[in-house]
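Why do we bother with a discrete structure alphabet at all? Because it lets us treat a fold like text: something you can write down, compare, and reason about line by line. To make this less abstract, here is a complete entry for Oxidoreductase. Read it the way you would read a sentence in a foreign language you are learning: slowly, and without expecting to understand everything at once.
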Amino acid sequence: MTTVQSPPTPPTAIKRPRVVARTGLYAVLAANAAVVAWFFVQAGFASNALIVLGRLTGLYAALIMAFQLVLVARLPWLDRRIGMDRLTSWHRWTGFGILWTLLAHVVFISFGYAQGTDVGPIGEIVDLAETTEGVLRAVVAFFLILVVGAVSARYARRRLAYETWHFIHLYTYVAVVLAFTHQVAVGTTFASSSAATAYWYGIWSVALGSVVLGRAVLPLWRNWRHQFRVTAVVPESDNVVSIYISGKDLDQLPARAGQFFLWRFLTADRWWQANPFSLSAAPDGRTLRLTAKAAGEGSAALRHLKVGTRVFAEGPYGAFTALHRTRPESVLIAGGVGVTPIRALLEEVHGHAVVIYRVGSDRDAVLYDELRDLAIAKGADLHLVTGPPVPDKLAASELARLVPDIAERDVFLCGPPPMMNAVLGSLRELDVPGPQIHFERFSLAG
């Protein structure tokens, strides 16, 4: 174990942007749920309770679907305050909410319209699909949602390649369009008044517009403006390489230490592949740097990139930044190549910091020399913790020994999932409050 110590620096300002953003999202969703209920009541009720429930569940399915699109639109204001991993998790659970509300909608409507007839609920759906405009499109949308829901279940998701899962998931957008046209064609509440019609057009315009803005317009505009190119390729070890990227007006790029980009290196064999890599140095307005470990064919090929290669970068993404500080002092815990955002964060954080870098051996400590020099310059304490996984050298007792006042500090954590899960358990044992623990799994889906 190596330790570097210097005097602490003054404390920093305290903010709670995640709470504000999360509360704002909940408030917007609750307000829209109330508006939907009001328009529903204003439209009047159907002849039996099942049809009433069917129409209401259909409206709420449409509202949740629109909300779900906003969650994955990658809007900068939401992403930097909540984080892509949490937004993706909420998107997953709202997806199951859509599945169940649509299932309830189909069951209530089919049984409701089948009352007093001899065709039964299945026959009623077939009859409605054949005779009523928009119902067949709704049936197709429902089956697409069922397929997407099935492949998104944890059992199936673990057995599918990300590319396969993502391709199937794209059919959700087809389902959204079909569901909207169904609502326009037969939605009683949709057409009950000009105000209701304007409201629903507004909801869908905001949802779909958010996706187009966040997933297409903003990335295209930023890449056109900044013209990213590779300026240097520097091997850090046998299996780790740093890529330096420059461009125009990088001082206007709203990137922060701890964030990541989806990088596409526009070579003949790699232009189609996007990989999420964190910044390994705080943006300085002139250069961006990523540091990647060879974990597959794509990342291993990075060391062969040529200077001058064009880069298409989507981002910056993530809420793993100093924006979320709640205490004047901090602990930065890194495992393996998870040191990259931690090293960048150390440049930006103010107040006394303790850095804990966990690796198997000294030779695995990528960027350690930079981290040591930066720790001295920043007045931080640096601990290099080496050795095999067992015994756990980041157990609660070890963390308490390294940082006795850890419960009074913000904790930033990045590393391999098993290590992160173990450290999160140790932090709970040490009664570190949840709002003081900051981590991001850098997951795009699932």
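What the structure line is telling us, in plain words: Residues 5-14 have pLDDT under 50 and may be disordered. DSSP finds 15 helices and twelve strands in the chain.
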